[in-house]
UniProtKB/TrEMBL annotation:
It comes from the Bacteria. This is Lipoprotein. It comes from Cryobacterium roopkundense. Residues 1-25 form the signal peptide. The lineage of its organism: Bacteria, Bacillati, Actinomycetota, Actinomycetes, Micrococcales. Keywords: Signal.
Length: 144
């Protein structure tokens, strides 16, 4: 699968940002202040914990757990989102896949590699890529 330089850049930026989330989680005062500043600066499109980002599509279910980070962005009149969750499930990747299938999503074989902790699903409206590791699970939702 070939990705554009813009997609790679956004992905790397999100991964770098996610590396700082655990540092903020340990300090409620700093985390709250940063969350407020980020929310003010982005118009509510970023959450550093506790809730899905503004505009998250209701047709995309997420597994149970603590939402650590969420963000939404808009380009060319299309909205996209990312969210990380500290899952309560013992097998979050399988559970995420099962939930998405239950919501009408089908496997996107071109982007899935469950053996390496990645599942890609799509419906008529969105592509959802779910990545899991021992630290949690990351959902990326993009319009088709």
């Amino acid at each position: 699968m070939t990705t554009s330089p813009r997609v790679r850049t956004v992905t790397l930026a999100l991964i770098a940002a996610l590396g700082f989330v655990p540092l903020l989680a340990g300090c409620d005062a700093v985390g709250g202040a940063v969350n407020t500043a980020v929310t003010d600066a982005t118009g509510g499109n970023v959450s550093l914990g506790g809730q899905l980002p503004a505009g998250w599509p209701s047709e995309v279910p997420v597994i149970d757990g603590t939402i650590l980070f969420g963000a939404g962005t808009s380009t060319s009149d299309k909205q996209g989102w990312v969210v990380t969750i500290d899952a309560t499930s013992t097998d979050p990747l399988a559970d995420a896949r099962t939930q998405l299938e239950g919501a009408g999503f089908v496997a996107d074989k071109s982007a899935s590699s469950e053996s390496s902790g990645v599942v890609a699903m799509k419906n008529d409206t969105y592509r959802v890529v779910v990545v899991a590791n021992s630290d949690g699970i990351l959902y990326t939702v993009t319009p088709l």
